[in-house]
Design goal:
The complex is a heterodimer. Chain A has helices at residues 3-13, 17-37, 95-98, and strands spanning 45-50, 53-59, 64-70, 73-80, 83-89, 108-111, 116-121, 127-128. By secondary structure, chain A is an alpha+beta fold. The chains are: A alpha+beta, B alpha+beta. β8 (127-128) of chain A pairs parallel with β7 (209-213) of chain B, so a sheet runs across the interface.
Chain lengths: 129, 339
């Protein structure tokens, strides 16, 4: 089998040419979907401040649930699909839980009784007024 | 001895229980401190914030402001030096701003449901107070009825009530800046629930921090990003806006910035006012006052005093005053300059 024959052999032996195409299209769609679902905001972080001090930072785009403990104060927080919310808290007024989800840069959830601030920081500015 | 122990216990448990009431400290963040005795600086600032909060909270029993608010006509209330300083500052600001910054509107705030004890319900829809109700407090909202003589405060109206919330954060931010200087801090950002103080300069490039100015009318815009950004250092930035602490009722926006003349939420087309100045107390008082003055009067006032400021209106226009033109950037494309 010389080179030419080899080529011809390979060409005839690949049965599903359209299959390659389909794979490419599917891959393209997945990439497109990722871009559509995850807005292009690099470096967005979730900052957790307790009594004014930055204690924890998470990526806004991780899927994670965690507890913030400060003495007897406990707030349970969930980050999912680029959104942050306080699921439960043992504070008196429950404002942090009622606040619901935040997802935009510089939005914050405050739990006043626990002196807790959860803030989404965009890397583009140092503070917001 | 036994009595002493009981006393100590009472005092201490008292403190612990009251911890839940912090309004300033609860929303304060300290970030990116560097240089000097940064830890000591931060601790001193925290102690000061807690100290001041305990003195000026209108809902904390025994605080200076609580005692003033519950005093009878002519009763002499002795207050701390800090409270005295903030009261004097408030009087000065009242005069400087042609009575548009007014700490004696607490009765009106209560009537509209914007007092701290009603914090959970700020955004709940509710009816306007009636004409009669507003009429009944008309004579109980006059700054002249509060007399400061050294550390002694007296009132000419027993029902008069004050709230220092509109200036205390500014006063505190200025004091924290003094602490930062004493502790040789090189840079850092103090954010007292929206009152920002850039304590020095950034650890990068030209030392300027970038501060995003909130778009007060995101709901009217396609792009919900900032109104603009400003690059600056060693200064305070404060914004008063009707997008914080407000409620909607029957299609109308009711917010916490009350006009002393009508005792109603200010309704003059202004959506937010940002002031940039080394005195955070000035920023605090002027941002509120200019909001109440309105666009034309506010513009004139700011130009006259050469203050760096941004006024943004409900119909997506803006006014820039002082020197702010030289360091503002990326102004939102859907806003136009006010003519």
């Amino acid at each position: 089998m010389n080179r030419v024959e080899k080529f011809q052999y390979i060409k005839t032996k690949i049965p599903f040419k359209w299959f390659d195409f389909a794979v490419l299209i599917v891959l393209g769609l997945i990439i497109l979907l990722v871009f559509l679902l995850v807005p292009f905001k690099e470096g967005e972080r979730v900052n957790v401040y307790i009594e004014g001090d930055l204690k924890y930072t998470y990526s806004l785009y991780e899927e994670v649930g965690f507890e913030i403990k400060n003495g007897e104060n406990i707030n349970k927080v969930k980050i999912s699909n680029g959104k942050v919310k306080v699921i439960s808290s043992n504070c008196a007024n429950q404002n942090c839980v009622l606040h619901g989800e935040i997802s935009m840069a510089n939005e914050r959830i405050v739990c006043l009784p626990h002196k807790l601030v959860i803030e989404i920081s965009g890397e583009e500015v140092d503070a917001v007024s | 001895m036994f009595l002493l122990i009981v006393l100590i216990l009472v005092v201490f448990t008292g403190c612990v229980n009251k911890e839940d009431d912090y309004f300033v400290f609860g929303v304060t963040t300290f970030s990116d401190f560097y240089g000097g005795n940064q830890e000591k600086a931060k601790q001193r600032m925290k102690n000061l914030i807690i100290e001041v909060e305990n003195l000026i909270s209108p809902i904390k029993k025994g605080s200076d402001v609580y005692r003033i608010n519950n005093a009878k006509v002519g009763e002499k209330i002795v207050v701390s030096d800090i409270t005295k300083d903030i009261l004097k500052l408030s009087k000065d600001m009242y005069e400087e701003t042609e009575e548009c910054f007014n700490i004696s509107l607490y009765n009106a705030s209560i009537l509209w449901g914007f007092d701290p004890s009603n914090e959970e319900n700020y955004s709940k829809p509710r009816k306007e107070p009636s004409k009669e109700e507003l009429e009944s407090i008309k004579n109980l909202c006059n700054m002249e009825d509060i007399v400061i003589n050294g550390n002694v405060v007296t009132k000419k109206q027993s029902e008069l009530k004050i709230d220092l919330g509109g200036i205390a954060k500014g006063y505190l931010a200025d004091k924290c800046n003094e602490i930062a200087k004493e502790e040789k801090l090189k840079g850092g950002i103090l954010n007292l629930g929206g009152n920002i103080y850039l304590l020095g300069e950034k650890d990068k490039k030209d030392g300027n921090y970038t501060i995003g100015i909130t778009n007060p009318r995101k709901e009217k815009c396609e792009n919900t990003g900032f109104f603009a950004k400003i690059s600056t250092k060693n200064t305070s930035i404060v914004t008063s806006g009707d997008y914080n602490r407000y409620y909607m009722y029957d299609g109308k926006r009711y917010h916490h910035i009350l006009d002393g003349r009508t005792l109603k939420p200010t309704n003059n087309g202004v959506a937010s006012v940002t002031i940039v100045n080394r005195s955070s107390a000035l920023c605090d008082a002027y941002s509120t006052a200019v909001f109440v003055m309105g666009i034309e009067k506010g513009k004139e006032f700011l130009n006259e005093k050469n203050i760096d400021a941004i006024i943004i209106t409900d119909d997506l226009k803006y006014v820039l005053t002082g020197n702010i033109n030289s360091y503002i950037k990326d102004i939102h494309k859907e806003f136009i300059a006010y003519e």
